[in-house]
């Protein structure tokens, strides 16, 4: 009987113009979303390629100058001598630390347009290269980018609700529901067949058009973990759709008119997709306000001025704390470069409390969002899709941790050479540390995504079960 109901429902849907209007529009929106996401990823890749090319050209130029000086030439300036470790570490040989786009990055831009995806790491303090931002239209950043994830989060539920708001009400209003129920079939079986067929159609549309978008967007399926991420993407889309289908059944179970059902579902869409995320955003920024960048700049200036005033004292203490740097040689307290190392170290120590406070506030915001994200399926789905696409906050923080490790490695390589006043050769440039990005283990990402998937399926199953039970009291005649 269930199969017969689904076949009848399919014929009804095919005969209805709604599906033929919505399906091409949905395909068009998915195509446009994938195109926008692919354009952003292409821009990122071209930017990273340009950065790497600039680094290669800069290294080649420095090595040529070093070779010329070794053969008796003179540097253009004493402060620009590429043979000096201090000049190489801070000016001629900084390396780029880059965050490459993940295989499915074109599907969900997430906040990758807000966070820097490359840093020019030098021997200076981390704040000097991590606080530099590209110029971008703030209106574009505020509105976000129209990508496939945007279609899934905001428009996909509307497609489901447009096909399901009158699941039973239209039959009752046309007077065919009583005739249908005169057959040896329960109302729950009828609803299950109707909603099951619609769910299969919508999921096929979402998965089929998305897969076509993946192919057109140039998604690399040969990359490690790409197929697993694709399956997780489809799973999240199915779970998100299941929630909205369950909500549609619940509203239909109240026995109201089609117009009332449409208004109720539109209101629920506004609550779950717009209102709750907005309120949660206000809450986290109020409970955990992030200090302004002005405060950071002022703290850095005060710390720098205080450290500079104690330059010679700091140098003595710095060399006492790091005797391995001098290699038994007596350091000159009037040496500008060596004293700068001590001043820089003290400046970083003084502003560290401000940085720690900023990090605590950001982590507090993220933990609060993670704790209350299950209040809105839109938040759960957005977080999961960002994780799958590699544009999540977690991946960015993983990148920052790797940058911090590389920055310490870079300094550890050059600081002894600076203090001991060593001279670099052209071959030394080939032995400088280089940055290599390593992805988070796929299992860690999958664990976070599966938590979100269960957060969608459990309420969907609960709402669906309660709705089917409520159908026992459904009034067949209006």
In brief:
This protein has 478 residues and is mostly helical.
Large-scale geometry: elongated
Number of helices: 18
Q: What class, by secondary structure content?
A: mainly alpha
Distance between the termini: 26 Å
- Helix content bin: over 70%
Strand order, largest beta sheet: 1-2
Largest sheet, strands/sense/barrel: 2 strands, antiparallel
**Average pLDDT across residues?**
82
DSSP E strands, number: 2
Low-confidence stretches: 135-143, 330-334
Instruction: Please give the radius of gyration in angstroms.
Output: 30 Å
The SSE string, one letter per element, is: HHHEEHHHHHHHHHHHHHHH
Strand content: under 5%
Written account of the structure:
This protein has 18 helices and 2 strands. Strands 1-2 form a two-stranded antiparallel sheet. Helix 2 packs parallel to helix 9 and helix 12 runs antiparallel to helix 14.
Helices and strands in order:
Blueprint: H1 2-15, H2 17-70, H3 85-92, E1 95-98, E2 118-121, H4 126-130, H5 138-143, H6 148-164, H7 169-174, H8 177-181, H9 187-216, H10 226-252, H11 258-287, H12 293-309, H13 311-321, H14 336-372, H15 377-389, H16 393-419, H17 426-429, H18 442-470
Antiparallel strand pairs: 1-2
Helix pairs in contact: 1-9, 2-6, 2-9, 6-9, 6-10, 6-11, 9-10, 10-11, 10-15, 10-18, 11-14, 12-14, 13-14, 15-18
